[in-house]
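Q: Hi! First time doing this. I have a protein sequence and I read that you can turn it into a structure. Is that right? Here it is:
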Amino acid sequence: MRLARTLPLLPSVILLLLFLGGPIAYCVYIAFTDLQLTGQAQESYVGFENFRTAFGDEAFLNAVWLTLVFTVVSALIGQNTLGLALAALMRRASKPVRTIVGAVVIAAWVLPEVVAGFLLYAFFRREGTLNAILDWLQLPSQNWLFTLPILAVSFANVWRGTAFSMLVYSAALNEIPKEITEAAEVDGAGGWRRMWHITLPMIRRSIGTNLILITLQTLSVFGLIWVMTRGGPGGKSQTLPLFMYEEAFQKSMIGYGTAVALLLLVVGSLFSVIYVRLLRTEV
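A: Yes, that's right. Below is the predicted 3D structure, encoded as structure tokens:
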């Protein structure tokens, strides 16, 4: 009987093993070899040499630090906080305001990554829109993509990805019974107290889900940064996906680049485990 129940799942399991498990297993194998794109007849097994090389490489450690900065600033602080704030404010806004704000925010989300990257490049470049506004206000301007590149690309990721968090939190807030918030308001609880003691605990699961999804998405951002800065200047905005691409496809070190990709997978897994452990308490 149990076999009969699991039999319909067999085709899905086979497809997952073939198109997901197979490539992952092959990547794990490549990470322990010295495979190169050119100039090599056959790869050889090198054990943990690629990983030792990575942790002794200052460029890799710099990419790890910038990846953490990019993720914390643009996902944990930017997208998550701004998405929750927009969702909360739009509940009290009029219908025209909700329509306009929702359309503007979602428009940034549905834009192709390359298009969004070019728009933000035009905004932050030396002769761009931001400096034109600062000059008009008679405030000091600068070349943002040269002086603060990691913050510029972080802002770009916030601008592009906030819509997802806003939609998640909008759905979660709509599930909170109005009777609870109205009772708290009658008891004299202000807006911040209602948010901290009622709203946030009741949407705990949504917060955890949103944090996991936007963190994993941010860790894999490539096109946006590549279009805006290509990881420069001097590696000041080179996150792990860009470092991995450079090592694997520009320097032809496929084995080393794949080892970096596995380390990036480990970083994403650690974030997920932390979120699950912090937010697993039932409300």
